[in-house]
Amino acid sequence: MDFKLPMLGEGSDSGVVVTLHVKEGDSIAKDQPVLELENEKAVASIPSSVAGVVTGIYVKPGDKISVGTRILSVSAKEGEEAPSAETESPQPAPTPAPKKEASASTAIPPAAAPLPTGIAPAAAPSIRKLAGDLGLDLTRVRGSGRGGRIELGDLRNYVQQLQSLAFAQQAQTALSPKAAPESIDFSRWGPVLKKPITPLRATIARRMVENWNAIPHVTQFEEADITGLLAMRKKFVAAYEEKGARLTVTSMLLKSVVDTLRKHPSFNCSLDEAAGQFVFKEYYHLGIAVDTDHGLIVPVIRDADKKTVFQLAKELEELAAKARERKVAGEDLKGGTFTISNQGGIGGAHFTPIVNKPEVAILGLGKAALKPAVRDGNVEPRMLLPLAISYDHRVIDGGNAARFAVDLVAAIQGFEEKGLML
Amino acid sequence: MNPIQTEVAVIGAGPGGYAAAFYAADLGRKVTLIERDARLGGVCLNSGCIPSKALLHATHQIAGAEESAHRGITFNKPEVNLDALRAWKESILTKLGAGVAQLGKARNVEVIHGRGYFSDSSTLRVETGQGNQFIKFDKAIVAVGSRPAIPKVFDLGNPRIMTSTGALEIPDIPEKLLVIGGGYIGMELGTVYARLGSEVVVAEALDTVLAGADPDLARPVIQAARKAFKEIRTRAKVVQMATAGKQIEVTTEYQGEQLKERYDRVLVSVGRVPAGEDIGLENTQVTRDDRGFVVVNSHQQTEDPNIYAIGDIAGGVMLAHKAHKEARIAVENICGEVAAFENITIPAVVFTDPDLAWCGLTESEAREKGIQVEVAKFPWTASGRALSFDRTDGLTKLVIEPETERILGVGIVGHGAGELIAEGVVLVEMGATAKDLALTVHPHPTLSETLMEAAEVFYGHSTHALARKRARAEH
């Protein structure tokens, strides 16, 4: 099929070929400029009205040609129109499909699409300078402007993206200290029994790693003389039993803890890192760490400040039973403001409990034991209870912690009998 | 003389050198500027851009007077007083030179006149009128520029064989002038002499004059020159020149023949060569390539960490505005900033009549590199402004990346193209799209509209030009 010089309009019917843009063997698309033609008025680019592979070219630069002169011929492709056809009809894709047609119909192209060889991404000189100063490679930045132009906001987004990526990687490393855990064959040294990790155990492990990594822990040790407290318990235990509750030292200590927390709001607060603020809670929900056959769970006693020792004792008993039977509702495990972990029923003295995020402190109780204590200049045997207060040093300083410990000991030792009245 | 201790020493006070010196001073450095000539400003101010443009302007009036007749206004034949013309041109150079000196003084830049030589990587010796002045520097910027090339066979020591420097002095108006080399210098100065009344012949060795410009843009310039000059010869090789009385006998190989012709003067404008000899670079770690250009990295730093080079001596296109940009980059690096000469658009302007300017990617370059582009053109025959001053021999052209519709290059030919191209540079540097340009209102009636209308041609809806419709998504 031939392409002949079409009517150029405005009375121009001839011209001199300036440059040829195609050669034999080239694939050309319809409307692709094939030559530059110079006449008295201007140099005009002449677009092809045919498409296909060029099989012959009949003009050369310098030739004077006029309307109807055969310029080139292309290998015939099915369904193509005569050069004179004015109307557009659906065109079967010639080889190759005209690229600009395809691209024109798509919306804004992906900005990070590779640019033609050697062409830098579109961005104002000021943006390029900024990127240079920061050592950023603009070819990696997605431009949101027209034509994929990179604007200041795009650069900002890119930096933020990099930053969050960097932090995510850091956190990832922190969460999995053992990058690639390796299995050790312990059976080489003797018989072993293998058990799968339960979901509860996995949760405990994950939470402990999180809390341990996120919080700078300090643990404050103290001892409280509970000789008086025990005497009071002995006096009231029967009356409580009659009413259906077991009066325990723990339930009495809950009262002392709440009283101390009221004096020290920072032990009942949380750190909201996202908002950059402290959240002081005006309620006192105490988490009680319960040791079960399946593992540790921490049900919560709500509004402990508004409850009597009797109510606390009863609730404590119920919660512990529920926990051991694994009947604690998910809601009962949430919303604690301060946790108490009591090992007194088992044994052991001081230990270093891990703060239960988002709380900022935890009280660990050991087993009370008869010890020589000095009272009014005399050495006496007294029941001393080991106390360990772990706290988040981002929120609480050592001085605060010491004052808290002193006030807690005073609250325990000064426990008044009327608090036990039914 | 006691040695001077300075932070930044700049050798050469051309448009690169004085820009570097002033900028370094503005950034708080102690600066010493060394210049061989009495007047600051370098080739640009003294024997390049400025005097050539002054002469082009002055002689344009002659051409303008001649062209005016068909518009019903006639003038008597203009008379040329060469002494007055020279004096006027000189007055401009004096004014500008004094201005540069004043700007340096206001910044406390110490200017030392004399030839500078590097003794080592931190010492310069300057031969001043009063003896040797030694300068100890922390950093030096070499900006010694270039000079016109004159092949040995042409260098007969005959003043009738001139380079651009001599031609700008217009010693007389030769009856017959041969211009060897059809680059922008030859075409510009040829225009000046043709207007003054010389019979100008241009001999170019390549296939075309103004090589480098797209053929469609060069065409109106060549057409106009064909009328103004006696002849433009391409693929013509001047093989010999000899003094013949008050003339020069020139032997040229042209169209398979050997021509022997006599000319009153010959202008040799075959390019420029770097002026890096005799400044003691061999005493430093600075290296030069086989053509004599100082080798620099993208920060304008030479192989010697203390020494930077900018402008013509550092290679690349030899243009004042490129030297100016490099001056900024060198000084910023010296002052601890990160700056690099990367992806910077350097416009080119040829001040012929009509003038010719382009920036960014040219159509020919895109074709050579296989970069797919689309071209949109707006002929000035459709510009009301061009018609109103009777110069429709112009064309405005955009080189567009089809996927993103980003403007990669702009080319303009026509009266005032040199001023118009600045908008093109901003478009390319800002990464603007044809849409951005088409949507920007341009004042009427001005030539700037041709840029906007060229963008509209791209979309097939230019008001004043008919263009085939394109299927194009509206963004």
Q: Can you tell me about this structure?
A:
The complex is a heterodimer of chains A (422) and B (475). With 422 residues, chain A is of the alpha+beta class. Chain A has three domains: 2-78, Beta Barrel (OB fold (Dihydrolipoamide Acetyltransferase, E2P)), CATH 2.40.50.100; 115-161, E3-binding domain (Dihydrolipoamide Transferase, Irregular), CATH 4.10.320; 217-420, Chloramphenicol acetyltransferase-like domain (Chloramphenicol Acetyltransferase, 2-Layer Sandwich), CATH 3.30.559.10. In chain A, 29% of the residues lie in helices and 23% in strands. In chain A, strands 9, 12, 13, 14, 15, 16, 17 and 18 form an eight-stranded mixed beta sheet that branches. In chain A, β10 (269-272) and β11 form a beta hairpin. Chain B is α/β, with parallel strands linked by helices. Chain B has three domains: 4-147 and 273-334, FAD/NAD(P)-binding domain (3-Layer(bba) Sandwich), CATH 3.50.50.60; 152-270, 3-Layer(bba) Sandwich (FAD/NAD(P)-binding domain), CATH 3.50.50; 354-459, FAD/NAD-linked reductase, C-terminal dimerisation domain (Enolase-like, domain 1), CATH 3.30.390.30. In chain B, strands 1, 2, 3, 4, 5, 6 and 17 form a seven-stranded mixed beta sheet that branches. Chain B has a five-stranded parallel beta sheet with strand order 8-15-9-10-11. A five-stranded antiparallel beta sheet of chain B has the order 18-19-22-21-20, with helices on both faces. The longest helix of chain B has 25 residues, at 82-106. Chain B is globular and about 70 Å long. The termini of chain B are far apart. The model of chain B has no long low-confidence stretch (mean pLDDT 94). The chains are: A alpha+beta (422), B alpha/beta (475). At the A-B interface, β4, β5, α1 and α2 of A face α7 and β20 of B.
